[in-house]
Amino acid sequence: MLDLRHLATLDAVATEGTFGRAADRLGYTQSAVSQQVAALEKTVGGAVFDRPGGPKPVRLTPLGEVVLKHGRDLLARAQATEDAVERFKAGEGRVDIGTFQSITNVLLPTVVRRLLDDHPNADIRLFEEETDQPTADGLDLVFFDGELTGDVEQTKILDDPYVLVTRPGQFAPGPVPLTALHQTAMVAQPPICDQARVERVYADHGIKPLIVFRTADNRGVLSMVRAGMGLAVVPKLALDDTTGLVTHEIEELTPREIYLAWQANRTLSPLATKVVDLTLQTAKTL
After folding, report:
1. Would you call 67 exposed, middle or buried from its count of C-beta atoms within 10 A (0-12, 13-18, 19+)?
2. pLDDT of residue 134
3. What is the DSSP secondary structure assignment for residue 243, as one 8-state letter?
């Protein structure tokens, strides 16, 4: 099997013209260069240099020319691989992240900006989907407002409390009991993800709100409350623009829990690991 060190020595001798100058270039002794060339010739089964003797430069044999041509290709690919590995370890490469609306709008902009500040050549891909139970398959990381099931590892990022959003004057300042929502017109998210849990809490307390509109768009929910269509119970991360609105704590409703997950028994890349670290740091500021 060809040894890359032997090919590098072949290239140095061919470039410099003598074993002595090649030794100086490589930092070897001249005898070490001779030994490596001899080992290469044994591997390929013939001489790679004609040695005229004296001060005249050595010349490649026809076999040597073939070996050098392909050897340089191997050396170039090996160097490219080494460079790619170093870039990977330094945090370059690609990271695929599954996300959802609140995380995209509030947390990820800071994470992405800090990541690109440190690793400007990073290839970051975001995939946003509102679904009952996302999968980490095909993704490096995935955010979800609840624990994922299946073969995943995950870490809790933060608690995101719910608030009642109303127009001014609809309720006195302070917390509002869940019973105030009974038979009340409300705008809501589709009954998937953690919204389904919220509606189970309503049912457990005998609360039957009148859902007049559902939309997965956080701004759409707030806009319809602002227009007077109804009240809304939303997580704080969904409060993009509260102009003309009032928020109240809502009793008996626990916060949604947001997790960051990845496939179990899979080593995260340095870039994905950095995303996890930056996410945890950023979540503490929210």
Report:
1. buried
2. 67
3. T
Contacts of 160 (CB under 8 A, 6+ apart): 102, 145, 235, 236, 237, 255, 256, 257, 258
**Which two structure tokens, joined as six digits, stand for 224?**
């319809």
The CA–CA distances, whole Å, from 138 to 98, 141, 198, 215 equal 10, 9, 30, 28
- Ranges under pLDDT 50 in the chain: none
The answer to whether residues 103 and 132 touch, using CB atoms and an 8 Å cutoff, is no
Bridge partners for 144 per DSSP? 259
Residue 252, pLDDT score: 86
Tokens matching residue 235 = 């997580």
Give the model's pLDDT for residue 207.
95
Cβ-count burial 24-48 (b if 16+ within 10 Å, e if not)? ebbebeeeebbebbeebbeebeebb
**Residues contacting 205, CB < 8 A, separation 6+:** 178, 179, 252
SS (H, E, C) 28-91: CCHHHHHHHHHHHHHHHCCCCEECCCCCCCCEECHHHHHHHHHHHHHHHHHHHHHHHHHHHHCC
Specify the pLDDT at position 275.
Answer: 95
Among 130, 91, 275, 146, smallest CA distance to 217 is for 130
Q: Which stretches within 90-212 are classed as H helix?
A: 101-102, 108-118, 193-204
Beta bridge partners of 235: 162
Give the model's pLDDT for residue 72.
Answer: 93
CA atoms of 44 and 10, how far apart (whole Å): 12
How far apart CA 261 and CA 1 sit, in angstroms, is 43
Q: Report how far residue 238's alpha carbon sits from residue 127's, in angstroms, rounded to the nearest whole number.
A: 18
* Rounded Cα–Cα distance for residues 187 and 228 (Å): 10
